[in-house]
Amino acid sequence: MRLRPHLSLLTRISWKILGASEALDAIADPAAPMLDPVVRAKVQMTKSNADLQVHIPPEHLIKQLGGNNDWEWEFTPPTEEEAEPQQDKAMVKKLTAQREKLIQQYTDVTRKWAKSDGHDEALNLTRELLRNRLRVQSYGASWSRGAVLTPAALDPYARGRSVYHRHGNIVGNGLVRSVAHRSKPR
Question: In the beta sheet, which residues pair with residue 17?
Fold first, then answer.
């Protein structure tokens, strides 16, 4: 019997363990057969900086890990304006209700799509449209009648800004990017 991870995060990320010791190897080797093959393939233990550079280019590694990037993390304190969107309770309520409506529409269409075995092209297109609307409503702009975009994304109203937003690691469209080459915040 295989141990199946119940967290989808485990299947979406790749794990690099730097400086894996003999003791960790002794634990990991017997446990490996119990892991799902997809998860097992994503866990890679490295014993040296040279091993790590097989997986991560030196320009993306900080100098402490044998790379040639001199980036150093620094804390940028929050500003007073960052919390303003969360204080607008009426807008939070409105955007949350829009989001819940879109989620229900997407769920209903997905159920119909599943019953059709995924062969109904109209349902495929509707699911794609609703998926894009959810993405836009969360991170970009909200959809209104006639597919006119208005600047009212849920994200700044539902989630506080962090140092990663201030440094440009988390961009407005929900994407996360590596900006380790920057030493100064935006």
Answer: 45
Burial-class residue 61 by CB neighbours within 10 Å (0-12, 13-18, 19+): buried
- The 3-class secondary structure across 36-75, one letter per residue, is CHHHHHHEEEECCHHHHHHHCCHHHCEHHHCCCECCCCCC
Are the CB atoms for 39 and 7 separated by under 8 Å?
no
State the Cα–Cα distance between residues 27 and 35, nearest whole angstrom: 13
- 52, amino acid identity: L
Listed in sequence order, the DSSP H helices in 13-154 are: 22-31, 37-42, 49-55, 84-87, 89-115, 121-139
CB-CB contact of 142 with 136 (8 Å): yes
**pTM of the complete model:** 0.55
SS3 label, residue 89:
helix
* pLDDT over 70 at 152, yes or no: no
Return the H-helix or E-strand segment holding 34.
none
Q: What is the pLDDT of residue 106?
A: 95
Strand pairing class (148-150; 43-46)? unpaired
Structure confidence at residue 183 as a pLDDT band (50, 70, 90)? very low
Predicted confidence (pLDDT) at residue 162 exceeds the cutoff of 90: no
